[in-house]
Amino acid sequence: MSMAREASFNAYVPYSRFAVGAALECSDGSVYTGCNIENAALGSTICAERTACVKAVSDGKRSFRRIAVFADSSNWCTPCGACRQFLAEFSPEMEVLCAKAGGRYVSYKLSELLPHTFNY
């Protein structure tokens, strides 16, 4: 979770001021971090989870064990629907650790958060 928290410090969030960090653990034990990066054209914004996943996939990784998602907020920071679908493309049964301020977190299986993924 500390890597996800550290990644949140790099977030570019001039519009929402809601910094999110993610740390994605691959099946081989390697970890990729990401942060959310906003854009004035809101549809071009990319979430922390997808940033980490894109970095991993661009390095040839395709199987993930878990992802930790952190925001310094009073609510659990869960992945948005787009991120859930994006991650499910690779590892629908991966663990998702959702944190909030104070370092507390809850754990879910991705398939619990997105029970009916779109797939072929």
Give the SSE layout.
Blueprint: H1 2-8, E1 20-26, E2 31-35, H2 48-58, E3 64-71, H3 81-88, E4 95-99, E5 105-109, H4 110-113
Parallel strand pairs: 3-4
Antiparallel strand pairs: 1-2, 1-3, 4-5
Feature tags:
single chain, 120 residues, alpha+beta, Cytidine Deaminase, domain 2, five-stranded mixed β-sheet, 4 helices, 25% helix
Detailed description of the structure:
The chain has helices spanning about 1-10, 50-60, 80-90, 110-115; strands spanning about 20-25, 30-35, 65-70, 95-100, 105-110. It has a five-stranded mixed sheet. With about 120 residues, it is α+β, with helices and mostly antiparallel strands. The chain has a single domain, classed as Cytidine Deaminase, domain 2.
Summarize the structure.
The chain has about 120 residues and is of the alpha+beta class. It is built from four helices and five strands, in the order αββαβαββα.
Major beta sheet, strand line-up: 2-1-3-4-5
Distance between the termini: 33 Å
The largest β sheet comes out as: 5 strands, mixed
The overall average pLDDT, rounded, is 96
CATH topology: Cytidine Deaminase, domain 2
Overall number of domains: 1
Q: Which secondary-structure class do the elements indicate?
A: alpha+beta
> What's the CATH class label?
Alpha Beta
Specify the CATH architecture.
Answer: 3-Layer(aba) Sandwich
% residues in beta strands = 25-35%
Query: Helix coverage percent of residues?
Result: 25-40%
String of helices and strands: HEEHEHEEH
| CA gyration radius, whole angstroms | 13 Å
Task: Work out the oligomeric state of the chains in this entry.
Answer: single chain
Low-confidence stretches: none
Count of helical stretches? 4
**CATH superfamily annotation:** Cytidine Deaminase, domain 2
Overall, the morphology is globular
* Number of strand segments: 5
